[in-house]
């Protein structure tokens, strides 16, 4: 059995352990009934397949309806309460996952969650055998309660009763998340006063500052419930600007992936060209060679072997084997199989062309921001991220310096006015906590506690 299918079977087993069905989806129901059922439907989960014994943290799962009057769309969530011992005071973090409708389980299992998959490659698996789960000592739930949400509709276990409910994009998905948060907080008033942050990486980094601005506008207008929004953080974030991808060329040159000659050819013949669709023949040939060389290693972490991901950062889907469907279950409704990232047959509108103005707007209002980059990511290189952060023209209050973990450099950082901090994480990938969990937790704990890195 392939690792992919083992993971698929594990996730199905986990789903069977989560009593999350908000409604009997086979039974017609009014929109009002759907909203009432979903708004209060959540369960605490104490055990998971593959994990020995009871979970050493509080895990809650559930569904929240986000357009019950129109399409019956519902967003699925995992809520992990802070493990620090003071969850009623600790920050509350809404965490989003990037990619093309990628499940937020990517964030739970591979990044900031309290458990990780323990795939044992040193021995063969019997058919149907599940990988094991292990406790993750560097999960971000050490410092905050984390609300993981499958968004947009169609990601993970989130679904719509009507096909038109899947017709979403950057703006509509963000507004659904705002609606989700209002309903979730209303149903969990004990967290209303907690310092609230929004976080995400990769493509979710495009959504986060826009969502922060929309929530801030509700706060200014007195729309209830009023969360205690403090700021946001984004990792290796997409902005929608060409700098995200154009910076791959100088990055690849700087780390020795391409030669001086190829770099100089691109710089000379590709100026003013769209790197994704160049019209100049010399530029096109040079970029073809560039992509060929860049593909010799993993774009997400240049020190690792090339891997085929379910989706590219821009949302396009690569060819991959389709996972066989499993028998329908009562609590899945219109969801008939689980994929880490959706296979691309659902439309999505990238209607936020650039989010840089939202970074400027939100931080100018006084909200805090952390922008961080794994320095081994060639998908959204730190060079491009550093460039657009500088383009905001904020004054420097703490100039470029190393930050440390256990007396050793863990990366480099600079802090600007308006409480914006940019940081690199040494050895970090496109998803920093995946490959540098200890350093990423140290960074997060310091920043979320208002301490300098």
* Biggest sheet layout: 12 strands, mixed
| Helix content bin | 25-40%
CATH topology of the domain at 3-239 and 350-370: Rossmann fold
> Regarding quaternary structure, how should these chains be classified?
single chain
Mean pLDDT: 85
> Percent of residues in beta strands?
15-25%
The helix/strand order is: HHEEEEHEEEEEHEHEHHHHEHEHEEEHH
Uncertain stretches of 5 or more adjacent residues: 1-5, 19-40, 309-337
Q: So, the CATH homologous superfamily of the domain at 3-239 and 350-370?
A: Alpha/Beta hydrolase fold, catalytic domain
For the CA atoms, what is the radius of gyration?
22 Å
Corresponding CATH architecture of the domain at 3-239 and 350-370: 3-Layer(aba) Sandwich
Structural class: alpha/beta
In total, the number of strands is 16
CATH secondary-structure class of the domain at 3-239 and 350-370: Alpha Beta
Form type: globular
Individual helix count: 13
Our measurement of the CA-to-CA distance between the termini, rounded to an integer number of angstroms, reads 44 Å
GO molecular function: acyltransferase activity, transferring groups other than amino-acyl groups; serine-type carboxypeptidase activity
Subunit structure: Carboxypeptidase II is a dimer, where each monomer is composed of two chains linked by a disulfide bond.
Enzyme class: hydrolase
Pfam family, one: Peptidase_S10
